[in-house]
Backbone:
C-alpha cells in the first residue's frame, strides 16, 4: 500500500468511514490519486461499495444534444467550438424547436432518463432563451424525460425563466481548480462560473457541475475541484477526460492514462458518496477496453456520443452494460 504521511490507505476502511458519514480529508483524496497500479482494483472495489450503497448497480443514461455549435466568443483552450480554435467543427445557429423535440424523441428511444440541450457561447441571447424555453415546455408535455440545459453564464432572471419553463437541471462546469482556471480561460473567470452555479441553485434547479481532467493541472487541482463541487452543492458531477482536439490550445496534451482516470473517478466517489457521478467525454478515448471499470465508481454515463466527437455508439454501450451486469435506470425509477 502507498504510504503518505498521516494517511492510512486501507480503501475499504475508508469506504466504511464515508458510508458512516465522515467526509474524507484533502490528504486522503490526494493519496487516492497518488496510489499505484497494484492498488487499483482494491480502490475500485472500495469505491464500488460506496456507489452500490446509494445506487446499487443502476446506471443513468444521458443523451446530449449540441443544439448550437461553434463560433463561441470565449477562449477555453480545450474547446474546439471556441473562435480561438483553428479546428474544424460544425458551426450552426440554435436548432429549431422541432429539431430539439426530435432529439428528445431519440433520447427516449435510447432509454435515457435525461436529455441535455447544450449551446456554444458565453451566455444565451434573448431569442435563444425564448426558443429553448418553449422547446422545453413542449418536451415536458410530450415526454417523461428530465431536462438539463447548458447555455453558459446566466443572470438571475434567465435562471428563473428556465426554471419556470420546466428545466430540471442546469449544467455549468467549474472545469478545474480556481488556481488553475486562468491557465485555460481568460475571457471569463472562475468567480463568474461559481456565480452562475449559485444562481442555478437559487432558482430551484438542480446543478450539474463537474470538470475536465488532463489539461495540465496537478493532482491537487483535481482534489480542489472535487472539494469545490461540495461548495457549490452540485447534484450531478460530470467528469470529462481530455481527448485533445486538433486546432485547440491543448491539442498537444497527452491523454490521461486509464489508471489515472479510474483513480480520479474513485476519488470523486469518496468525496461525493451520494451524488450522481458521470463518466463523460473521453470515456472511450482514455479508457478503451477498460471503460466499463469507470462504472464501479461512477453511476451515470452519456450514450451515443458527445458534443463534437462520437462515442462508441448506443448499441455498444448497452452491450457493455449488459455484459457487466449493470442495470439502466428506467424513467419510472427516477
Ligand atoms: S464557453 Fe463553452 S462553447 Fe465557448 S469556448 Fe468555452 S467551453 Fe467552448
Residues:
Amino acid at each position: 500500500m502507498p504510504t503518505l504521511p498521516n494517511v492510512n490507505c486501507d480503501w475499504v476502511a475508508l469506504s466504511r468511514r464515508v458510508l458512516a458519514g465522515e467526509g474524507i480529508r484533502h490528504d486522503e483524496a490526494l493519496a487516492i490519486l497518488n496510489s499505484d497500479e497494484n492498488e487499483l482494483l482494491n480502490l475500485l472495489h472500495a469505491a464500488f461499495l460506496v456507489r452500490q450503497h446509494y445506487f446499487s448497480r443502476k446506471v443513468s443514461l444521458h443523451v446530449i444534444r449540441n443544439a448550437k455549435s461553434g463560433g463561441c466568443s470565449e477562449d477555453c483552450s480545450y474547446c474546439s467550438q471556441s473562435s480561438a480554435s483553428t479546428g474544424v467543427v460544425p458551426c450552426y445557429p440554435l436548432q429549431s424547436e422541432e429539431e430539439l423535440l426530435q432529439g428528445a424523441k431519440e433520447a427516449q428511444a435510447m432509454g435515457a432518463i435525461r436529455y441535455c440541450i447544450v449551446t456554444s457561447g458565453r451566455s444565451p441571447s434573448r431569442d435563444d432563451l425564448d426558443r429553448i424555453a418553449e422547446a422545453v415546455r413542449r418536451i415536458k408535455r410530450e415526454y417523461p424525460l428530465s431536462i438539463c440545459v447548458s447555455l453558459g453564464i446566466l443572470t438571475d432572471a434567465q435562471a428563473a425563466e428556465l426554471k419556470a419553463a420546466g428545466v430540471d437541471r442546469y449544467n455549468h462546469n467549474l472545469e478545474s481548480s480556481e488556481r488553475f482556471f486562468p491557465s485555460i480561460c481568460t475571457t471569463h473567470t472562475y468567480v463568474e462560473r461559481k456565480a452562475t452555479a449559485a444562481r442555478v441553485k437559487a432558482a430551484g434547479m438542480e446543478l450539474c457541475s463537474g470538470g475536465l481532467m488532463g489539461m495540465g493541472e496537478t493532482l491537487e487541482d483535481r482534489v480542489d475541484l472535487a472539494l469545490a463541487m461540495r461548495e457549490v452543492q452540485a447534484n450531478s458531477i460530470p467528469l470529462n477526460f481530455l481527448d485533445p482536439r486538433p486546432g485547440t490550445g491543448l491539442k498537444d496534451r497527452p491523454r490521461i492514462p486509464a489508471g489515472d482516470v479510474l483513480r480520479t473517478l474513485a476519488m470523486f466517489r469518496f468525496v461525493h458518496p451520494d451524488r450522481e457521478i458521470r463518466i463523460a467525454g473521453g470515456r472511450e478515448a482514455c479508457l478503451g477496453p477498460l471503460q466499463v471499470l469507470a462504472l464501479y465508481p461512477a453511476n451515470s454515463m452519456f450514450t451515443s456520443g458527445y458534443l463534437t466527437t462520437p462515442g462508441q455508439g448506443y448499441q455498444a454501450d448497452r452491450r457493455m452494460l449488459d455484459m457487466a451486469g449493470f442495470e439502466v435506470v428506467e424513467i419510472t425509477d427516477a
User: Anything to note?
Assistant: Strands lie at 58-68, 114-119, 146-150, 169-171, 206-208, 211-213, 236-241, 276-279, 300-302, 327-328. Residues 32 and 317 are 28 Å apart (CA to CA).
